[in-house]
Amino acid sequence: MSRFSGVLQLTDLDDFITPSQECVKPVEIKKNTTSGTGSKIKIQEDGSYFQMEQDGSYQKLEKVEITLADCLACSGCITSAESVLVTQQSQDELLRVFDENKRFKFLGQIEDVKFIIVSVSIQPILSLAYKYNLTPNNCAAKLATYFKMLGADMVVDMKIAEDFALIEAEKEFIRRYRATESDGVKNQIPMLASSCPGWVCYAEKTHGSYILPYISSTKSPQQIMGSLIKQSVGRSKSVYHVTVMPCYDKKLEAARQDFFDNETQSRDVDCVITAIELEQMLQIANIPLEGLDNSEFSQPWLQNDTEDVVPNVQAHIGSGSGGYADYIFKSAARELFGEDCDNIEYKTLRNQDFREVILEKEGKILLRFAIANGFRNIQNLVQKLKRGKSQYHYVEVMACPSGCLNGGAQVRPREGISAKEMTQVLEKMYSELPVATPRENDSVMYLYDTWLGGQDSDKSNAVLHTEYHAVEKSFNALNIKW
Amino acid sequence: MAKLELIQTLKKDNGRVWNVSWHPKGDAFATCGEDRCIRIWAKDLLGKWSNKVVLTDGHKRTIRQISWSPCGNFLASASFDATTCIWDKQSGEFECNATLEGHENEVKSVAWSSSGQYLGTCSRDKSVWVWEVAEENEYECAAVLNAHTQDVKKIVWHPTQELLASASYDNTIKIFKEDNSCDDWVCCATLTGHDSTVWSLSFEGNGSRLASCSDDCTVKIWKEYTPGNPEGISTSDNNSVWKCVCTISGVHTRTVYDINWCPLSGLIATACGDNSIRIFKEDSDSGPNAPTFNLICNVEKAHNEDVNCVAWNPVVKDLLASCSDDGEIKLWNFVDS
């Protein structure tokens, strides 16, 4: 059964886009320059194919291989992508890398040894804390121990990247708003959230140039983390970077060509592992997470990178998907209209997964934001946009109903509990966490100065932002069915 | 001996005709097909059925099905161009005033719920969508249901409740309803039994039974057993179960493409790939949990090619319309003598 979540494919949720077509990647035929006609192909007993050359010799034919990049560049299904992911980003692959690294260390092959860093995001921490009856901080600390047992050199909190993403998205929104209002620039507003790869992939495959200009160019926290780890730590070491995420679609995101560094020939995120896969790994290895010791989180991006800290997981106010709408709304209200709104109230519209919030002054609506989760709400939003009927300035779009806390690869609910009820438990846990304030994060400000050459510098725009690419629809006579 | 008397044959010579749909008042019907046009037919002054309106420009590819809203003011059309159009006469003439986009590819079927509040569509993309009719030509997507594993061929609504049934290439029938506890539509029943593609469905007039037809050359009758039913059929989660209580086999020699259960007479008509139209009548002596349906009329060569659709008139008893790959539309009168 497929495990993609969100708009790409869901298993336990009735809210997604299915793979639509059979794989349409054309078989590559290497033209034989000498032969005018077709050539003979002989099939061996083991099933391999040999082509007979004109001189009578045989040449083995290459099997056609489909890479993840092929899948992402195709307008057809994504089912093939899944089997590719199994080999590139599975728990088996992760364990293989850990074991291989241990062997290199043991054999003293220092040049082959990788420095393995695991970045942990908040949603899977809560999911596993729920599963193993731990507090979020304890769960984070025990996960750190588990990864170190496997062979990780460092385990880090992804919150720093979430803070970066919020600050960059907020600045981008204000830039877009002003460009629209004062310069009449088109296709800037509404700004649509970009951190959900299921949504981004769907928009690229299905709606191309209609929708892509509206999607925030700010990288998702996972990819900001990728840049931070590979650039700050990777300068001196060969780093293998693992992220722990709430959904499978994040694997697709990590595999995007945009996040591949040609210079080092490596991805910013080498392997994505999800809550449900971690649960399986723990079960297979028969390790009770709750019985492990606590370990600390590292902060390799700081000057004094030996200073480890006890995990102190924090939430961002608003949705459990990162709190984008909330943070940008409040910042924009203050920056654009001088309005402080500490408590903002969402109004539920058509269903619980479509909520909006308005900033109103003297009867005039200044800002209209929404949170749209799940495919049906994405549909309505996209159709409104296409018809020019959207009134929104910003929409936090996530492919999964209820957003990232209900990500497709979170741990399944306990017996007798519905997915909805479990999500409510996770939402409550999230709301009880201490609140992060991105602009007051000294590490972020330090990194803007030391790593990115200041806020709004060319480097920070290059490192913290990305691009999207419309996928051309390919039509193939073989796909037409009655 | 029961028979179908041919009243009239209509032909516009533009390729196969996929579907015929009666206006709820029964005095007009619409047809659609390969020529990407919708034709509306009504009786002329001489009492002959004739083509009154041709709607073009709505779709770029074959129109697979059309459906009149219960109020009779709107006509929905499902096309292989992946869109569904809603036509109405607000301006005096029929015009397409809304286009529903979202399906990835061919839309195979479209139907209005009995209240007129919802519209269902299904597609080769394996999904069933529920659209809520909002204000002013606005249709909001209320649900995208991916319960099927293959192409979904047909959807029909329950005659009185907001209950949607779908038939698929995955050999199953699924039933969907809105679940208030999760604020979304859910699949509340899966009906398995057919050995091949289920092509079409039709509820009995009171909605307590459902007839299905399939590529396995059979027709099946499914009966709803509600929670706490006197027969003691077990149900779970307060959902009804639908059990197959009758299978009609050995009658159709090819794929059965369409089935229509007449709410007025209780007769079931089928459209078959062997070019025949057949009429079945329930045996009044058979019990409710094991009914028998008898073939009472078999019109061989009703058309020259596959019969794609059969539709009983909702007002005039025993008036049946059919259409075929041969490009013809036929009107029949059922006589039971």
UniProtKB/TrEMBL annotation, chain A:
Keyword Zinc: no
UniProt xrefs under InterPro entries: Cytosolic_Fe-S_CAF, Fe_hydrogenase, Fe_hydrogenase_lsu_C, Fe_hydrogenase_ssu
Xref: Gene3D superfamilies: 3.40.50.1780, Fe-only Hydrogenase (Larger Subunit), Chain L, domain 3
GO molecular function: 4 iron, 4 sulfur cluster binding
Domain of life of the native organism: Eukaryota
Keywords, ordered alphabetically: 4Fe-4S, Iron, Iron-sulfur, Metal-binding
Keyword Metal-binding: yes
Pfam families assigned: Fe_hyd_lg_C (PF02906), Fe_hyd_SSU (PF02256)
UniProt record similarity statement: Belongs to the NARF family.
Protein name as catalogued: Iron hydrogenase small subunit domain-containing protein
Organism the protein comes from: Rhynchophorus ferrugineus
From TrEMBL, chain B:
Pfam families cross-referenced by the UniProt entry: WD40 (PF00400)
Gene Ontology terms describing biological process: iron-sulfur cluster assembly
Role according to the record: Key component of the cytosolic iron-sulfur protein assembly (CIA) complex, a multiprotein complex that mediates the incorporation of iron-sulfur cluster into extramitochondrial Fe/S proteins. As a CIA complex component, interacts specifically with CIAO2A or CIAO2B and MMS19 to assist different branches of iron-sulfur protein assembly, depending of its interactors. The complex CIAO1:CIAO2B:MMS19 binds to and facilitates the assembly of most cytosolic-nuclear Fe/S proteins. CIAO1:CIAO2A specifically matures ACO1 and stabilizes IREB2. Essential component of the cytosolic iron-sulfur (Fe/S) protein assembly machinery. Required for the maturation of extramitochondrial Fe/S proteins.
Encoding gene, per UniProt annotation: Ciao1
The UniProt record lists the keyword Repeat: yes
Keywords: Repeat, WD repeat
InterPro entries with a match to the protein in the record: CIAO1/Cia1, WD40/YVTN_repeat-like_dom_sf, WD40_PAC1, WD40_repeat_CS, WD40_repeat_dom_sf, WD40_rpt
Gene3D superfamilies for the chain: YVTN repeat-like/Quinoprotein amine dehydrogenase (2.130.10.10)
Organism: Rhynchophorus ferrugineus (Red palm weevil)
Repeat region (WD), residues: 10-41, 56-97, 100-141, 145-177, 191-223, 300-337
Superkingdom of the organism of origin: Eukaryota
Homology family: Belongs to the WD repeat CIA1 family.
Gene Ontology annotations for the cellular component aspect, listed alphabetically: cytosolic [4Fe-4S] assembly targeting complex
Name under which the protein is recorded: Probable cytosolic iron-sulfur protein assembly protein Ciao1
SMART domains in UniProt: WD40
